[in-house]
Specification:
This protein has 251 residues and is of the alpha+beta class. 16% of the residues lie in helices and 41% in strands. The chain has one domain. The chain has an eight-stranded antiparallel sheet with strand order 1-2-3-14-13-15-11-12. A five-stranded antiparallel sheet has the order 4-18-5-16-17. Strand 11 and strand 12 form a beta hairpin. Pfam families: NAGPA (PF09992). InterPro entries: NAGPA.
Length: 251
């Protein structure tokens, strides 16, 4: 009997370790900001997540308006009307205003597609966000968007395959996803995780807010940014004061 009790205690512990410590920080009819303290056998991190109802909030790409302009900060974009802003990843090392490839804002192409670059596009048409594989056909479909990545999950399955030493490293992350309830999920981690750990967790978790069918990485290693407008507070995470080339904003 004691063996059985210990066995079920172990199973319960394993379940708790999968995704624990959910806290609602701010709740709005159109979006919810949550904190997850995640402890699994493979990694530990703190995840700040916004779950967005895409029927109620419209997406828009903010950032550079000219190739060599100053870009925008996530805090600035929130102060001028956005409810949620996610940024990061659309930078070259140490030069946050140099695009890593395709960038289109307000229908104007600021930077061309970079062949052999990131394999995803965060695109917007009519206020709706889409996560697309990077191609000439994809960029022709979007009114606004930018090249980013890598893709971690597509069709509910992990598609990321580590291909270099850097792709195995753990960093803080910014990701954008579509969950299995067709809501938009934007998130940053404040403790380092690898891309494969992030992909495996978001595709396999039992948490219905986090379980995702499409996941695109936006940042790793310092440029991750999340800013959320509350009632009387602006919640900020990551590099929220840095000018960036491209930000995904929701209004």
């Amino acid at each position: 009997m004691r063996t059985i009790v210990l066995f079920f205690a172990f199973l319960s512990l394993g379940f708790i370790l999968q995704d624990s410590g959910e806290t609602v920080i701010f709740k709005h009819p159109d979006y919810v900001l949550k904190k997850y303290v995640i402890r699994t056998r493979e990694f530990s991190t703190t995840l700040f997540v916004v779950i967005i109802e895409p029927k109620h909030l419209k997406a828009k790409i903010q950032g550079l308006t000219q190739r060599h302009s100053n870009g925008r900060t996530a805090v600035e974009v929130v102060r001028t009307g956005a409810k949620v802003v996610l940024g990061g990843g659309f930078v070259s090392s140490f030069y946050p205003l140099i695009p890593n490839g395709f960038l289109k804002i307000d229908g104007a192409t600021i930077s061309a597609l970079r062949a052999g670059g990131y394999n995803g596009v965060a695109g917007v048409n009519g206020g709706k966000l889409s996560l697309l594989r990077c191609s000439n056909e994809s960029i022709d479909k979007v009114y606004e968007g930018f090249q980013t990545g890598p893709f971690l999950v597509q069709g509910g399955s992990v598609v990321f395959r580590p291909s270099s030493e850097a792709s195995y490293r753990a960093y803080n992350r910014a990701i954008v996803a579509i969950n299995t309830n067709n809501k938009v999920v934007v998130a940053v981690t404040t403790e380092p995780v690898t891309l494969l750990q992030m992909a495996t967790f978001l595709s396999g978790t039992s948490n219905t807010d986090l379980k995702s069918k499409e996941v695109l990485n936006l940042a790793g290693g310092g440029s991750e940014t999340l800013v959320v407008k509350g009632n009387n507070t602006v919640y900020t995470y990551g590099s929220f004061q840095d000018n960036q080339s491209a930000l995904i904003a929701f209004y």
